[in-house]
UniProtKB/TrEMBL annotation:
<dbReference type="GO" id="GO:0005737">
    <property type="term" value="C:cytoplasm"/>
</dbReference>
<dbReference type="GO" id="GO:0016887">
    <property type="term" value="F:ATP hydrolysis activity"/>
</dbReference>
<dbReference type="GO" id="GO:0005525">
    <property type="term" value="F:GTP binding"/>
</dbReference>
<dbReference type="InterPro" id="IPR006073">
    <property type="entry name" value="GTP-bd"/>
</dbReference>
<dbReference type="InterPro" id="IPR027417">
    <property type="entry name" value="P-loop_NTPase"/>
</dbReference>
<feature type="domain" description="TGS">
    <location>
        <begin position="280"/>
        <end position="363"/>
    </location>
</feature>
<dbReference type="InterPro" id="IPR004095">
    <property type="entry name" value="TGS"/>
</dbReference>
<dbReference type="InterPro" id="IPR012676">
    <property type="entry name" value="TGS-like"/>
</dbReference>
<dbReference type="GO" id="GO:0046872">
    <property type="term" value="F:metal ion binding"/>
</dbReference>
<dbReference type="InterPro" id="IPR041706">
    <property type="entry name" value="YchF_N"/>
</dbReference>
<dbReference type="GO" id="GO:0043023">
    <property type="term" value="F:ribosomal large subunit binding"/>
</dbReference>
<dbReference type="InterPro" id="IPR031167">
    <property type="entry name" value="G_OBG"/>
</dbReference>
<keyword id="KW-0547">Nucleotide-binding</keyword>
<protein>
    <recommendedName>
        <fullName>Ribosome-binding ATPase YchF</fullName>
    </recommendedName>
</protein>
<dbReference type="Pfam" id="PF01926">
    <property type="entry name" value="MMR_HSR1"/>
</dbReference>
<dbReference type="InterPro" id="IPR004396">
    <property type="entry name" value="ATPase_YchF/OLA1"/>
</dbReference>
<dbReference type="InterPro" id="IPR012675">
    <property type="entry name" value="Beta-grasp_dom_sf"/>
</dbReference>
């Protein structure tokens, strides 16, 4: 399963946030594909469409979809030189598909900051630099070999060398791979290098309880947003402490507490949705009388493989996908009316499933 790793310097609020994630945690029994590991937190993806479909169909049961956060401990300055838990830290990052980078944006004199003061941009740079140095080492290792091959006019080597040079130049200027523009061909080469700094990043600005209502007044948050904008990354503002409290509440209590605080959606829910989309994940629905359910697929997945997410037999025996978009279905008010209006399409093997599709798969057993 795709996962996003939570990283950050010590004392920025990672554990507090990860606690909130596991507290809010999904019943892993519902999600047999998820990893069982103390460092993995399974979260349900909040999706108002699921509620709406439940009202339309009135099923016995409604099941949201879920995905994973992985807690990655142990970053220290010098990780790329193998200091402390350094190597382990880097190898854990290698295994995740996206990074949620927690930065401290709260002042609290009782909580020591590892570098003595609150400065989120410096904190971001400390971690980013370790990842950049590790990537520089990987690129350097390939460089001389590819350079030799390129001299023999080997076409692939020439193309790769160009990419390596671009990367090396960026790394030496402390820029991550994700900040560089590549052509589609070059992107394929970059992908093959399995770099740490080409993974998408989401910055999580952890603010004090008092700042949740107007986070943009917090100068640290402003700085993080400006920084992230430059590398096309997103920022989510949370107060890890409050999230920990919210996570202990159930549906109705949670809604009341949020209303009291004057916020629409908890920071954790925002983080979950942002991380989900950062991973390139989308949702389709099945809506029967027994069960209305959300399913996660990778953007670009075709109908048979999407069916295989439910059960491998669905993929093997795939005939067609009876598909209606969420909007068309809601507008019609019922599946029957949607059919009358010709909104239910019969899609075949080449159909690329779209976010929000409500699908009934037909298959041979
Ligand atoms: P980690 O080392 O990054 O995992 O940080 P922790 O989650 O252990 O948090 C370090 C300290 O900061 C703990 O004492 C937390 O209670 C405190 N802390 C975390 N988030 C917040 C917050 O939003 N506001 C305040 N005031 N303290 C926080």
């Amino acid at each position: 399963a795709l996962t996003t790793g939570i990283v950050g310097l010590p004392n920025v609020g990672k554990s507090t946030l990860f606690n909130a994630i596991t507290q809010a945690g999904a019943e892993s029994a519902n999600y047999p594909f998820c990893t069982i590991d103390p460092n993995v937190g399974i979260v349900e993806v909040p999706d108002p469409r699921l509620q709406k479909l439940t009202e339309l169909v009135n099923p016995k049961k409604t099941v949201p979809t879920a995905f994973e956060f992985t807690d990655i401990a142990g970053i220290v300055e010098g990780a790329s030189k193998g200091e402390g838990l350094g190597n382990q830290f880097l190898s854990h990052i290698r295994q995740v598909d996206a990074i949620s980078h927690v930065v401290r944006c709260f002042d609290d004199e009782n909580i020591t900051h590892v570098s003595g003061s609150v400065d989120p941009i410096r904190d971001i740079s400390v971690i980013n630099l370790e990842l950049i140095l590790a990537d520089l080492e990987s690129v350097d290792k390939r460089f001389s070999r590819v350079q030799k091959l390129a001299k023999t006019k080997d076409k692939e080597a020439v193309a790769e060398l160009e990419v390596l040079e671009k990367l090396k130049d960026a790394f030496e200027n402390e820029k991550p791979a994700r900040s560089i523009e590549f052509t589609e061909e070059q992107q394929k080469i970059v992908k093959g290098l399995h770099l740490l700094t080409s993974k998408p990043v989401l910055y999580v600005a952890n603010v004090s309880e008092d700042d949740v209502l107007s986070p943009d007044d917090n100068p640290f948050v402003q700085k993080v947003k400006a920084f992230a904008a430059e590398e096309n990354s997103e920022v989510i503002v949370v107060s890890a402490k409050i999230e920990e409290e919210i996570a202990e509440l159930d549906g109705e209590e949670k809604a009341m507490f949020l209303e009291e605080l004057g916020i629409q959606e908890s920071g954790l829910d925002q983080l979950i949705r942002a991380a989900y989309s950062l991973l390139g994940l989308q949702t389709y629905f099945t809506a029967g009388e027994q069960e209305v359910r959300a399913w996660t697929f990778r953007k670009g997945t075709k109908a048979p493989q999407a069916a295989g997410i439910i059960h491998s037999d669905f993929e093997k025996g795939f005939i067609r996908a009876e598909t209606v978009s969420y909007n068309d279905l809601v507008e019609a008010g019922s599946m029957a009316v949607a059919k009358e209006r010709g909104k239910v399409r019969l899609e075949g093997k080449e159909y690329v499933v779209q976010d929000g599709d409500v699908i009934h798969f037909r298959f041979n057993v």
